[in-house]
Amino acid sequence: MPSAVEIDPAEQTGNSGKTLDAFHTLVQDLNKVLGPSSGLTSADVDPKNVQDLMRNYSSNEEEWKRYAMSDASRTFTRNLVDRGNGKSNLVLRGSLKETLYAWPDRNVVNKGKPSPLQIQKETVYTQEQVTYMSDDIGLHKLGNPDPENFAVSLHLYAPPNAAKVGCSMFNQHTGASSHMISSHFFSEMGQKM
Fold first, then answer.
1. Burial class of residue 40 (count of CB atoms within 10 Å of its CB; 0-12, 13-18, 19+)
2. What are the pLDDT digits (tens) for 70-84?
3. Could you give the angle at the alpha carbon of 45 between the alpha carbons of 44 and 51, nearest 5°?
4. 132 forms bridges with which residues in the sheet?
5. Which of 11, 45, 91, 115 gives the lowest tally of CB atoms within 10 Å of its CB?
């Protein structure tokens, strides 16, 4: 069943002197906006600037397809494009359904009782739409609602904590969390690992 291909951007800066296509220009511009900051929540970074850059990109599969390696036996593949600074999401092809949840009540969960995740909003994003997520907003789940076609999206994690140290996964029914080790990249810079 087709699922999602996640592309993490990072280091295609055009140092070779070649003219960059729009996708690689986007990656370069994202690195400039994020600069040496510690991420999207840094005082010197406006997440809206990052979202605007992504929103202004017109998806051209010829520019990014070498990075979008998929495997139908997996729910998603993570393909690294750039090692630069990188939480926004841009749908490059297909659609993604995002479910936003409120944080579970930690006091209830810590007492061993369930605090089911409460859905705040569900949105389907299509090609060239941008979504933004941070811990301040809540929790989210992304999935491909189309069982016939792969979805391809560009994810930015800044700082790239999920890739480096993993993330928390929450049980939808109990609110309990468990730490997941970083999911390894399926490919890096267009080369399958």
1. buried
2. 888 888 888 888 766
3. 165
4. 88
5. 11
Helix-helix angle 47-56:22-34, to 10 degrees: 180
Tokens of 124: 């389907």
Element (H, E) at 42: none
Whether the Cβ atoms of residue 175 and residue 117 lie closer than 8 Å to each other: yes
Tell me which residue of 170, 163, 146, 165 sits closest to 84, measured CA to CA.
Answer: 163
The residue-averaged pLDDT of 110-132 equals 94
Query: Within a 10 A sphere around the Cβ of 80, how many other Cβ atoms?
Result: 24
63 three-state secondary structure: helix
Over residues 44-66, the pLDDT tens digits come to: 888 889 899 999 999 999 999 99
How far apart (Å, rounded) are the C-alpha atoms in residues 91 and 151?
8
Neighbours of 107 (CB within 10 A): 9
